[in-house]
Structure formats: C-alpha cells, structure tokens
Amino acid sequence: MAKPQQILHLLLGLLILIGAAPSISDAATSSPYKKSKSQSKAEASSRGGSSAVFPLSGDVYPSGMYYVTMNIGNPAKPYYLDVDTGSDLTWLQCDAPCVSCSKVPHPLYRPTKQKLVPCSDPICSALRQCETLQCDYEVQYADQGSSLGVLVSDAFNLRLANSSTVRPTLAFGCGYDQQLLNPNAPALTDGVLGLGGGKVSIMSQLKDQGVTRNVVGHCLGRNGGGFLFFGDDLVPYSKVSWAPMSRTHKYYSPGPASLYFGGKSLGIKQMDVVFDSGSSYTYFTSQPYQALVSAVKSDIGNTPLKEASDPSLPLCWKGQKPFKSISDAKKYFKSVVLSFVNGKKPNLEIPPENYLVVTKYGNACLGILNGSEVGLKDFSIIGDITLQDLMVVYDNENGQIGWIKTACNRLPKS
Questions:
Q1: Which GO BP terms, alphabetically (predicted)?
Q2: How far is Cα of residue 316 from the mean position of the Cα atoms in its chain?
Q3: C-alpha atoms less than 13 angstroms from C-alpha of 111 in its C-beta half-sphere
Q4: Together in a domain, 218 and 269
C-alpha cells in the first residue's frame, strides 16, 4: 500500500487517514484570526461555551503526521494523539491488558472497570450495535491495520481561551489489540484524536456538554508544528473562503470541484474531494491524478529538471544540484487550483510548496499521489501537505468548511 513515510488509515465505515514539511512561508505575516478581547468575550457569552487552543507537533515530511498533546485522566497524564478530521472515534493504545500494542511515547493508558462505557449508553449505540455488557469496537484500515478495543470514558483536561479549565468526561476507545504495518517500530503517537462530525466525535461530545460549539480547526505549519482549536472564538468569519459541507458524505467535504494547473483547465469537473488532516499527502483518484501528472511533466519539460528515482515518493525530479528546500524547487512548478462549484464557488489555490516535498536525497517529489493505488475510487483526499499554512475550519454548527491563508508558526491570541 502506502510507500513513503505515510500511514494511510483510510476510514472504512468508521475511520481515517494519516499523514511531510518543507520551509516556512514568509508570505503570510498578518494574523487574520485576532479579535479584540471585548469582541471575543461578547461573542462567547452570547453563545455559551468557549474555545481552546492547542499547539501541534510533527510535520508532513519526514514525520508523516501532526499530533497534539491531550491530558487525560485524574490525575491527568499526557498522551500524543494524531489529529484526524477523517474519523470520529478517538482512541488510545491501552493496557486492558494489552494483547498487541506498539511502543508508544507514554505509558499505556490503564482503564478501571468503572470507566467502561456500558452497552446501553447512547454513545455506544452511535458507534455500533451492541450485544454485550461492554461497548466493544473494531476499526479496520485500508493498509490492513486495525485496532480492537472497548469504549471507556475519562476526564479530558482542557484549558479554555477565557483562562478557565474544564474537565469534561468524554468517551473514547481503549485499544488493546492493534495490528499495524510495522508493529515493532516505535510509534510517534499514543493514539488518534477523532475530530469528524459523528456522534462519538470529541467535538460532538463537547457540544452536547455545553463546553464548546461544534467547530474545530487547524493550522498546520509548513516548517512543522502549528495549532489546533476547538470552538469558534478565533474564526475570522468574514475573511474566510466558505463552502457548504456536502450532504452526500460522512466525511468533511466541500463538494465537487474543477481542476486547474497553471491557470488552465485540465478538463476535470465534478471532482469530489474530502479534507482529511489524518492523511500526510493528497490523493487524487485516477483520472485527475493522471491529468495532473501529464500537465506537470509537460510543463517542466523545458527546464533543467530530470526525473529521479527516490524511495520517499513515487514521482520525483532532480535539479542540476540537490535541492536544499522547497524555495529552491518551487520556481519550476505552477499552482494547482480546485474551483468548488457549491455556495459562492470558492477556490483553493495549491501553490507548489503545498504539493511538493524536498526529500533528504535533495529531490523534489510530487506530494499528490494516485489514490487508486490505495483503494480510492469515489473521492479524492486533500491531506496535510496541501493544508499547510492555511487555517482550515470545520463549522458543524453552520454546515460549512472554510480556509484562509495564514502563518501557522505561532499560536493565535484570543
């Protein structure tokens, strides 16, 4: 399945995808998410709830994911969770006892019997049909990986933007049997933070408990890092490009789009796309992928670049000397644009730095991959590489997805 530094947790009915970084962009130096304190307080009090902001770690390349530290339990203990808007269920590898777990950054979460979510709980019904006393789950991934476990509930320690701390009790998966691609390799994270729109999602649970509104967003730094936020206090609504969420998907989709390269149409219309922070790279289905690759190869035919073999990614080019950063390579490439057809027909411009990776071998590689090779037939996936240095907002309250260019290398001020 997936080659280069990518773990593709392709959501099958319940699940997800995972996900590399060049140099920081100096184009966006303003902070569009800033609001006055009086404005933020007035808006928060009128809606109820507040927002929370979390720093992110990781990158697209070579880490292959962005992750957040969540403090769970009483007393609270830290766990690294892969930020995934492509799935609903949050889960940790745990000692229940553990049948098969990989080496994780922190000691395995240890549940008590009192933490088990009963089969009769409505949140279990939203997850699966339950016929036993406890709420068991199993998630299957496209890379043949899986996690088997039981649903538990425990306190999540969240520091809100209004300086208060809340400790809501939230349900999540305690995974005691993981079948992974590289079970002996140390894992970067302790589990997955599921941020989809379903009932078992952390965001839906926080909304139900009146902690925050069901709005989640991320800003993935091109040099790594960035931030994640719950709630909408930081969202500059009037400046964001918005598209209505597609009703034909259980994933976050702004609906169909037309595909352009270098300002020219590639003849691809009604291209169905999904935004997924759990995927390192972007995956186009076969037809748009082939159209894009043909256009890119044709366009750089008269440049000094030559195709090169690189174990990192399938399609790479070398220059007259090894590239040191994206800024060295991007001048040879043009922007890709997705023009969405719904709502106000917003465009998502994808500059070369949001689809290229400069590998440790000094080659420039295409970070848009052939989705048909990993089982994608019906929709394309916009992954982390394309979402770098964008604030992306998944507004479940108003049924819309938005984005705005910004620098993600510093935390916003509420």
A1: proteolysis
A2: 24
A3: 24
A4: no
Q: Is 335 exposed, middle or buried (0-12, 13-18, 19+ CB in 10 A)?
A: middle
Listed in sequence order, the residues at least 6 apart from 46 whose beta carbon sits closer than 8 Å to its beta carbon are none
Domain stops at, among 219, 236, 253: 236
DSSP state of 109: B
pLDDT digits (tens, 9 = 90+) for 218-239: 999 999 999 999 999 999 999 9
Question: Which two tokens mark 361?
Answer: 């071998």
The answer to whether the CB of 65 falls within 8 A of the CB of 80 is: no
Task: Give the amino acid at 396.
Answer: N
User: Left if phi > 0, otherwise alpha if psi is -120 to 50, otherwise beta: which for 187?
Assistant: beta
Are 286 and 371 within 8 A, CB to CB?
Answer: yes
199 and 177 Cβ atoms separated by less than 8 Å: no
Q: What is the pLDDT of residues 296-351, one digit of tens each?
A: 999 999 899 999 999 999 999 999 999 999 999 999 999 999 999 999 999 999 99
Active site residues per annotation: 84, 276
Q: Which residues form the domain of 86?
A: 37-236
Nearest-angstrom CA–CA distance, 124 and 121: 5
Give me the sheet containing 316-318, strands edge to edge. Answer: 306-308, 316-318, 364-366, 356-358
Boundary (domain end) residue, out of 184, 209, 236? 236
HEC per residue, 139-163:
EECCCCCEEEEEEEEEEEEEECCCC
Predicted TM-score (pTM) of the model is 0.88
Name the token pair of 375. 């089982």
Partners of 74 in the β-ladder? none
Quick one: tokens of 333?
Answer: 């490439």
Q: Are residues 155 and 299 in the same domain?
A: no
| Collapsed DSSP state (helix, strand, coil) of residue 342 | coil
C-alpha 314: how far from its chain's center? 22
